[in-house]
C-alpha cells in the first residue's frame, strides 16, 4: 500500500520517508458495511510530529473477527494518479 500511495502522491512519499510520527494510539473500531455486515479493525493512530493536527490512521482486520474474509468479498479499488 505504501508503494501505491507513494507512486500517486509525492507529498505522501516525502512524509513517509521522513518517518516523523509520534507514539501510536491503539483502539478497536467496528463499522457496519451495508453489503458484508460488521467489520472490526485494530486501529493505530500515529501523530505527525511536525504537523500538529495531522494523523495517519491504519486499519487492520482484527484477527478472529471474520473481517478479512468479508473484505475479500468486496470489489477491489485501485488508486489512480491525480489528473
Automatic annotation (TrEMBL):
Domain MmyB-like transcription regulator ligand binding: 1-74
Domain of life assignment: Bacteria
InterPro entries tied to this protein: MLTR_LBD (IPR041413)
Pfam families listed in its UniProt record: MLTR_LBD (PF17765)
This protein's name: MmyB-like transcription regulator ligand binding domain-containing protein
Record organism: Goodfellowiella coeruleoviolacea
Amino acid at each position: 500500500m505504501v508503494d501505491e500511495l507513494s507512486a500517486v502522491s509525492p507529498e505522501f512519499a516525502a512524509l513517509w520517508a521522513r518517518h516523523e510520527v509520534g507514539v501510536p494510539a491503539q483502539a478497536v473500531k467496528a463499522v457496519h458495511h451495508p453489503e458484508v455486515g460488521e467489520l472490526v479493525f485494530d486501529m493505530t493512530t500515529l501523530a505527525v510530529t511536525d504537523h500538529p493536527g495531522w494523523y495517519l490512521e491504519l486499519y487492520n482486520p482484527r484477527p478472529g473477527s471474520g473481517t478479512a474474509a468479508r473484505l475479500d468479498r468486496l470489489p477491489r479499488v485501485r488508486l489512480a494518479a491525480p489528473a
